[in-house]
Amino acid sequence: MESENLLEVRDLKKYFPIRKGLLGRTVGAVRAVDGVSFDVKRGETLGLVGESGCGKTTAGRVILRLIPATSGSVVFGGQDVLALPKGELRAMRRRMQIIFQDPYSSLNPRLTVGAMLQEALSIHKLASGQAARDRIAELLDLVGLAPDHARRYPHEFSGGQRQRIGVARAMAVKPELIICDEPVSALDVSIQAQILNLLEDLQKQLGLTYIFVAHDLSVVRHISDRMAVMYLGRIVEIAPSDAVYDMPLHPYTQALLSAVPVPDPARKRRRILLAGDIPSPANPPPGCTFHTRCPAVQDICRREAPSLREIHPGHWVSCHLVEQGATHAPGPSAVTLSAT
Questions:
Q1: d(CA 269, CA 262)
Q2: Which of 146, 183, 148, 189 is nearest to 163 (CA)?
Q3: Which end of the chain has less Cβ packing within 10 Å, N or C?
Q4: Conformation bin of residue 34: beta by default, left when phi > 0, alpha when psi is -120 to 50
Q5: Pairing mode of beta strands 315-317, 234-240
Q6: How many angstroms separate the Cα of 67 from the Cα of each of 11, 40, 169, 262, 320?
Q7: What contacts 24+ positions apart, CB below 8 Å, involve 155-162?
Q8: Global confidence as pTM
């Protein structure tokens, strides 16, 4: 029986060594991803959110083995991606693709759009000759571009069109999983909506599975079925998107959501202002990594790192306060009330 989980990530870690001296001696490590675990079901979209530098993009690239993992496992379709030899990895990469954040620098300026798409088809031996030209025309039509755009170069397109080319390139090899690495953050708001709608339409037509990496929570809620919130290389909360928005349990998630603008000047929202800066991932604090900024910190938070536990069906949280039953936002003394 086929598992409903297409992807299973367990205790994934990626440490970048810090080197000093003429001999390049390792004196420490930047813990970009520090023990991340989650599942992605077939046909769903998992949103991966957090502040810049929390490790969400690195996690996506380690899953695809674009950069090597330090430890952990990434099981895709029953195979551990991190353990595959190079020959089998190429075949696996046909099933797992990525859409990059910058729609210009991710495209080769020396190649036409047709040549870029042809390259993907040739590497995986999917089509050649007239069959390849027909497939390229089909891909361009699929993303809302004209067949004659295949003869143009990336600099001849707008930002939104370039991102459509990036989507077409990811779709060329008929993948099952696509990691969308902040694919709309560099685009205007109106163009963002077009790309998001395109991704949703393609998912419905082709049964795709997405991991959507972003820091814009409103965008993530629009497209995601579930949401995983990362802080300093770790997942602190994971739940269905509506549950995260309607009943955030982790203090960090509550603070993130309090900063999301509300398109109604008459509404008042409790704004949670976090003290201090994000600790360095090269020297994370002991215990709960969020305790240095948490408005409701307790002694246990400084001593012990909380585990990710299921508080409600499908709602997982890593927080001592939630385990003790304090599931509501901190009191008024810890926040500033503001109209947004």
A1: 8
A2: 183
A3: N
A4: beta
A5: antiparallel
A6: 16, 20, 20, 38, 33
A7: 155/109, 158/191, 159/103, 159/104, 159/186, 159/187, 159/188, 159/191, 160/103, 160/187, 160/188, 160/191, 160/194, 160/195, 162/103, 162/104, 162/107
A8: 0.89
Question: What are the chain's domains?
Answer: 5-95+175-339 (3.40.50.300), 106-168 (no CATH)
Judged by DSSP in three states, 238 sits in: strand
Residue 147 is given by DSSP the state G
Q: How far apart are CA 160 and CA 311, in angstroms?
A: 41
Cβ atoms of 272 and 255 within 8 Å: the answer is yes
Rg from Cα positions in the chain: 22
State which amino acid sits at residue 277.
D
Q: Quick one: tokens of 254? A: 């509550």
Give dist(CA 229, CA 317) in Å, integer.
10
| Cβ contact 44:209 at 8 Å | yes
| Per-residue tokens: 235 | 């997942």
By CB atoms closer than 10 A (0-12, 13-18, 19+), residue 229 is buried
Question: Position 242: which residue type?
Answer: D
Query: Which stretches of 44-123 are DSSP H helices?
Result: 56-63, 86-93, 113-123
d(CA 278, CA 232): 8
Q: What is the pLDDT of residues 131-148, one digit of tens each?
A: 999 999 999 999 999 999
What amino acid occupies position 309?
A: R
Give pLDDT tens digits for 242-269: 999 999 999 999 999 888 877 767 776 6
Closest CA to 152 of 143, 142, 140: 140
Q: 176 by DSSP, 3-state: which?
A: coil
Question: 3-class DSSP state for residue 310?
Answer: strand
